[in-house]
Amino acid sequence: MKFIDFRSLHVRVIFILSLFLLGFLGYSLFTLKKTEETMLSLEEAKARTLMQSNLSNLADALYFHFDRTAEDILKTILLQNQGIVALRLYSSAPKSHPASFTADPSLSFEDLKKREGIYPILFSVKKDKERLATVEALYQPSLSKRYFETYRFTALISTLLLITLFVGAASYIYMKIRAFYLLGRKLESIDPVHVKTIEPVDSYSEIESITNAVNRLFLKISDYARALRESKRHLMEAQKIAHVGSWEYNLREKTFVASDEFYRILGIDRHEEKIGLVRLMHLITPDERKPFLQKLKTAIRAGGRFEVIHKIHTATGKVKYLKTIVKVRYRKGGAGKVMGISMDVTEEINAKKHADHLALHDPLTGLLNRRAFIENVNLVLKIAERHNNMFAILFIDLDNFKPVNDSFGHETGDALLQKIAHILTDGVRKSDVIARIGGDEFVALLNDISSIENVENIINKLIANISKIHKIHKHEIKVTASIGAAIYPIHGKDTETLLRNADAAMYEAKRSGKNHYLIFNESIRRRLSDRMLVMEEIEEALKHGEIELFFQPQINLKSGEVKGAEVLTRWNHPKKGLIFPGDYIPIIEETDLVIEYDHYVIKKTCQVLKEWSKSSFSSLVLSVNLSARHFNSRNLQLKMQQVLEEHEVSAEKIELEITETLSMENVDFAMSILQNLKDIGYMIAIDDFGTGYSSLNYLKKLPFDYLKIDRGFISDIDKFEDNATIVKLIIQMAHTLGKKVIAEGPEKEEHIHLLKALECDFAQGYYYAKPMNRKMFEDYVVSIHL
Description:
single chain; alpha/beta; eight-stranded mixed β-barrel; five-stranded antiparallel beta sheet; 26 helices; rod-shaped
């Protein structure tokens, strides 16, 4: 039959059972034969015993020639032993004939002797050692005959039953094993990718148990396979997301396999081309191929690993950077594999190059930044020291650049800066260096100059080109530049000194009229020294509490009551006496010292408010100015929160003033900072309103509480109708936005009458009071409220 296989288990089992049956039958026959022989031997022994017991009488009868008596004895033996069926006497006497006696007279001795199952026995008859005759007895084992006739029948029945049982058992085993065989064939036909449960091939409980176990195993395998496929899919997705491809090279079989992502990284369609290690090596750029191969050979020889970043030319012609990690693993027997992981780091490398470029370049103009410029100066300085060369550093600041941003927008301002960068680059030699170090600030390094006149010629050329009319976005824009210069080694012998002196010269050029240049000189040095001295003295003044608070009242024009005051400062110098802010504030505003100064004023203000909180002055609100640097500083919100908590003062008692110009420089940033301060609880006032270029669209978005009209509009409000009209419009606009208005600088009663008529809310000026110290201010408040 088709399913029979002589190598199969069921055929072998049936063969073994057959051998066992044949062995059993053979053993049974052998035992039966032995039993039969034993019983025949016993019956023969019995016949011999009977004959022996009568041979002595027979010997006496023959010795005395009593023939008749001898015959009677033989007949008696036949009668006494049913097993002996015939006797024949062979006398030794001459001419004697054998005498035969049979139990059945109808049968002759010869006939009986020929019959099956009759056995002859010879006995020798002797008397006094004389042989008288020989007796041949034929005996038939009747007992064993009857026994074996019955036994044969029983054995036949038993054998038939045994064969029947054997056939049944063989059939049962065959069917069992055949069921396993059919189950195995079903298992062979199962698709490992799409595993399905199988039905039992028969109803045997063992097969059902095995089938159920196999189905459970299949379910687990299916779950595992599904998880494995999912894991593989996730791995492929992760490789795709991470731009990581894996590959493996079998050193013995010279086979190369790679993941789909690796093919994608190389720009190769794996269905169209199968790559190998040689192909991969050729994709590596020639300058990096040899080092890569050397590292690979070393790793293969030593069984190690290496990591390298290298370039490749993809099949599509692109250049990519790969970070490849290679590990060589050997198994027992020497078989080895080279396993690699290659990550596409092109974006990272390009980003790093871009970041490195940005670290040294200005992103807007592409010029070097401050850091790169200083590195160049340091390098040129070393060369100049060695060769006694001269070089110059120029500080270039655009005049009136801010109105360009305010009037035409930052996009136009940026375009102008880019054009100025081109003018500066074109206006110097290729060996010179131009950099942008701030918003509208540039620096130039004029390398290896021959004279100061040479520097002045270059500066004049730059000023002339910058001051031309520039067409930007359909706008005609004119700006000028103030330039300061410092020359090595005349004005300094180190980078920091040269930069500081060039900056000081530029500052003096701007202060003395703009649109021209100054080369650093002793006069500038002295002024710079004076500024440095002021900075140092202010630091000491803050430490020793020499900065005093002065208060200028703010009056409610409707009620006449004191709303509060603007906090101003005076420097109580230990030697020079009282110094007004105009003499030192512009100096410290150029440095971060102004942040420390602002914080000092705010702390002192909080101390005053804390002391007033339990007095009749508890309703007063104090207004404090925030400088531009402080407003733009980091952690402003945190510091402003901490100073309130430190002095246990309500933020509603403090009004923070920022200038209109500052609020409009970066509206989104200003909105964010002001909202943070409002969230703390501070009141916000826009100071010097009317002097800037506020956009009403932006102004309405700013979170503030008060508008302070600049004193320039108030001082002539009674003389010029235009001023009154402007003030009226400002007040109406503020009220429309839900804000209050404070007029700065009213000095005459006419000013107050006009402001009241225009429905201004508050006024602050000499008409009411000049700035005064705390004691005088408290007395003033008391006098007003009496």
